Amino acid sequence: MYKPSADFQSVIRGQTPGYDEVPSSSQSVAPPTYVVPQNSGILNPFQPAPLMQDPFLGQPGFGMQAPSNFAFGANGPQPYRYGWTVRQEVGFLPKEPTGGNLGNFGVTEFDTELEYTTALPTGWIFSFTQQYDLRLWDGPLSKTPAAIGLPGNVHRFGWDFELSTPANGPWSVQLGFNPSINSDFERHLTSDAWNWDGRGIAFYRASPHWMIALGAGFWDRVNDKVIPYAGAVWTPDDRWEWRLVFPKPRVSYFIGAPFGAPKWIYVSGEYHIEAYEIEVQRVAGGNVQNKIELEDWRVVLGTREELGRISSFLEAGWVFGRKVDIRRTGGFNISSGFILRGGVQF
Questions:
Q1: Which pTM does this prediction carry?
Q2: What CATH number matches the domain at 83-345, 2.30.30, 2.20.28, 2.40.160, 2.50.20?
Q3: By three-state DSSP, how is residue 258 classified?
Q4: Which residues of 68-77 are buried (b: 16+ CB within 10 A; e: fewer)?
Q5: What pLDDT digit, counting tens, does each position of 16-67 carry?
Q6: Helix or strand holding residue 295 (H, E)
Q7: Cβ–Cβ < 8 Å for 233, 242
């Protein structure tokens, strides 16, 4: 088993930290990375099996020379975090008017993940993530005969399985399968409560500063969708990273490490869809069990920081193109509005 150097605590790099399905641009050696002395828990991702390189690499940061047991990509060493990782996030979308005279609709989001990552004997990296998401819905409900009402809360229990090849050459591959149960649990579950999502992405490092991503994902919703996971990642220098990849592009800028905590600012977009089996409340007629889908587009401005094993983010922006589709009974639109999100990983 690889044992990290006892002389180094953590690595500060220009790359935006945290989980992402889209890696950074390169794995070529570049200027040294700033390091904070003390004991480390960071693993060398370039070592032969069982510890292999993370395909999500970027370019080095600034300052002191790093120890020889680290290797660098386009924005610094990005080793997998082996073992357990916890993520907690919360979001708030205030009430906005809906179409069809249904009243206003607002959402409070709580997301939590418990991930375990390990290296397989083949050298591939395997991750298993247990997920729980809670949505508190405020509205819509009006008194017109055609009105519909949604439950006050819905739940998602998910299990994400991911396999990644070691990115020791220009090509690497990532495969993921993410089944989940999504319901208000007001009635017995049917097949509509299950969402069967999957993804497959191939990455090609064309140069030290460019990486190409090409793949697709399947989202099991009211209206099943096959979406592209495609685009390019450009890291022109130690501070900028342009992840121009659908469905979640992001442009990040490394602003430094004041008080020893590396910080980034970023602008991110996202195409987002959720689906649940719920009991739809109707003023005219009895309640019915049905499947609902909420679709929107998001653009946010945010900041992230990393301190040892703990990283956090805070972002705010705008949600637009909001649609709600209820199977067999139609749906409604929601006006564009504000979104605020924050979270921590440790």
A1: 0.78
A2: 2.40.160
A3: helix
A4: ebbbbbbbbb
A5: 333 355 544 333 323 333 333 333 333 333 333 333 333 333 332 222 222 2
A6: strand 288-307
A7: yes
